[in-house]
Every structure is written in C-alpha cells, then in structure tokens.
C-alpha cells in the first residue's frame, strides 16, 4: 500500500516535471534525464513508469484533459445562466493556464508540430464552447440575430490566443484581459437588459 | 550578375523550403538535409548561405516580417476608415497564413519554445493593431464607452487564435470565419449607423 502510494506520487512528480520541461524546451528538445532529475528520481524510475517520451507526453495530455474537464463541469451556483457559465469557464481556464504547469503543457502539446495529439485539448475546449453556445441560443439567452457558429469561434479563437500569447506574457491570461474581452462581446450577444445581469469578470471571486 | 541572380534564387528557395519543413516537423526536429534536398540544392550550398539552422530560422522570420509589413501598410482605396483598414488587414493576414508557407512559419517561430524570436511577429502585429485601434478611437470611429485596450487585445487574441488553430484546420483562416468575427464585434465597436458602412468581409474582393 505504502509502496503503491509512493509509485503514484513518483508518477505525478514525473508528469509535473515533464510538463515544466516541455514548456521550457519544447517537446522535441526536452531531455528525459532533465525531467527525471527535476522530479528527484532516477532515469530507471522514469522508464519504469513511462516507456518513452511520447508515452510521457500522452500522460501529461491526459492529466491536463482531466483538469480541463473539471473546469468545464464546474458550474458556480452564482452563475445565473448558461452564458455566465461560459464566461466563468474562460476565467477558470485562464487562471489554470497561469498557475498549472500541467494544464499549460497539455494545451501546448495540442499544437506541437510533428506530433499527433492523443487528446487535442484545444479541440475539446472548442467542442464544449460550441455545445454551450448552442444551448444558450436555444434557451433564448442570445439575440436572435447573432450566428451561434460565429459566437463559438470568436470565444474559442480569443481564448486560444490568450493561451498562446500568455506563454510569453502572463498579462494575456489576467482576469483583466479576459474581463475586457467579455465587456466588449456581451452587449453584442445579449439584449441590453440581459447583459446588465451578467458578470464579465466571472460570477464568483477568484 | 547571372551568378548573383542564381545565388538570390537559391537563398529564396532555401527559405521557402525551411519554412515548409519547420511547419511540418517543428524547428527543433527539422533536418538541414531535408531542407536542402527539398530546395534542390546540396548541403554545402545551404551552409554557404546559412551558417546554422538558427540563422536560417532568423532569415525565415525576416522574410515573414516583410510580408506582414506589406499587409499592414497596404490600405485599400475602398477602405472608408481606419476600422475598415484593420478589418481588411485581418482578412489579408488570414489569407496570407493560408497560402504563404513563409508567413505561416514566421508566426509559428514566434511561439517556438526554447528559441528567442529575432522578430516576434505576433508582437509586431499586436503593436500595429494597438496603434491603429488608438487612431480609430481618436478619430471618433469608436463608441466612447469602449476600452481601446480591450478592443486591441480582443482583435490580437482572436487573430492569433485563428493562426494557431488554422495550423491543423484551414477553416479557421477562411474568409467566412474572419467575417463572422467582425459581424459580431463591429456593432459593439461603432454606432449602428456607422457599422452599416463597414464591410465585415473586407472592403476589397480577394
């Protein structure tokens, strides 16, 4: 039991270490020796858990997909409607990308040239946003004149832009930047009276 | 003279070939042998022009920066105002990223982990958009209530998102996707009467 626990912890430490090294060096340049030594384990221990760098990258992606799923599933009790849930999720995502090396590396791995992603996190995020925008549209939360496809692609493109630009400058992932985006977009999406009830900065303090 | 012309052509062929290989394999994994053979020249010829892969990447970035500058400088006579010039430039950029391997690779190199960009194209684009949005604001083209900083960051984030997502799916760089973004945003930026004169699809056919 204790041995199992230690194995789980070693595996997690390796995933975190790999995420940090992938982010700094890129997947192709990342060295397994650097990853294992940063995790405080031997090269042998790394190979016991992960047969190759590709398998390790898949594990980082899986762990990041779990974090993303939690963000998408969590609906604040303060979120008055579906649109607010979408706004809240973009804030949670930006916050996660700022603070969680695994989530950040998972998104970066989605765009890595020459590697086929196992779980393309950007695509998964796109599917969720598209689904939620459609639901908001069918619930009458959006103006009838807006194209649902256009709303989904604007939200996905802007958040992926924040993610990518945030790799070099964390200000792109700040609450301020994400709020400004919604302050601009919300009045275009909903009627004026409805927009007044929405919180561009997210419905719960973070 | 003929010899000089040939040298210029070889250099250009190498830059184009490098751009294609960087896009497919990523900068780190890209092989100089593959790049030279795709350009139809010897490894020796490549090294005569470029001392290292890093120098070659700088040359790709420089060439891409030239293409981006042309896009930013070109103002259609049909563009009635600064905001239309910005809309047109986003369409030109998307079109360029779809069709020009050098421009695409230049943008990708800006985000390459473990490499300091010589000319960060995303930052250059951001500077231009920020400057133009400020000018549009000072010319009274925008609603007084919109935050100029928010407009610039929404446009930059969305276009960088289109660029990154377009690497795996060209539909993100289609005229339709870019037009939908503007159809959504323009009414939020300008008064209703003014927005009617703007072409979300760009002011000139392409």
Automatic annotation (TrEMBL), chains A, B:
InterPro entries: ArpA-like (IPR047923), DNA-bd_HTH_TetR-type_CS (IPR023772), Homeodomain-like_sf (IPR009057), HTH-type_TetR-like_transc_reg (IPR050109), HTH_TetR (IPR001647), Tet_transcr_reg_TetR-rel_C_sf (IPR036271). The keyword Amino-acid biosynthesis does not apply. SUPFAM superfamilies: Homeodomain-like, Tetracyclin repressor-like, C-terminal domain. Transmembrane segments: none annotated. Gene3D superfamilies: Tetracycline Repressor, domain 2. Residues 8-68 form the HTH tetR-type domain. Coiled coil: none annotated. PANTHER family: HTH-TYPE TRANSCRIPTIONAL REGULATOR BETI (PTHR30055:SF234), HTH-TYPE TRANSCRIPTIONAL REGULATOR RUTR (PTHR30055). This is ScbR family autoregulator-binding transcription factor. It comes from Streptomyces lancefieldiae.
């Amino acid at each position: 039991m204790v041995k199992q626990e230690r194995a789980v912890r070693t595996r997690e430490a390796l995933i975190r270490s790999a995420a940090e090294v992938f982010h700094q060096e890129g997947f192709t340049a990342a060295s397994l020796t650097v990853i294992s030594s940063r995790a405080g384990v031997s090269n042998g221990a790394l190979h016991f858990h992960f047969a190759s760098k590709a398998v390790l990258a898949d594990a980082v992606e899986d762990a990041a997909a779990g974090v993303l799923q939690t963000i998408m599933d969590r609906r604040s009790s303060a979120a008055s409607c579906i649109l607010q849930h979408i706004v809240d999720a973009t804030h949670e995502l930006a916050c996660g990308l700022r603070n969680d090396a695994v989530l950040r590396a998972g998104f970066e791995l989605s765009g890595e040239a020459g590697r086929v992603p196992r779980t393309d996190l950007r695509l998964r995020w796109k599917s969720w946003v598209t689904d939620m925008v459609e639901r908001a549209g069918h619930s009458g939360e959006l103006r009838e004149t807006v194209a649902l496809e256009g709303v989904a692609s604007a939200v996905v493109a802007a958040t992926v832009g924040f993610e990518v630009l945030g790799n070099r400058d964390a200000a792109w992932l700040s609450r301020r930047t994400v709020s400004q985006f919604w302050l601009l977009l919300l009045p275009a999406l909903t009627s004026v009276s409805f927009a007044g009830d929405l919180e561009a900065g997210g419905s719960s303090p973070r």
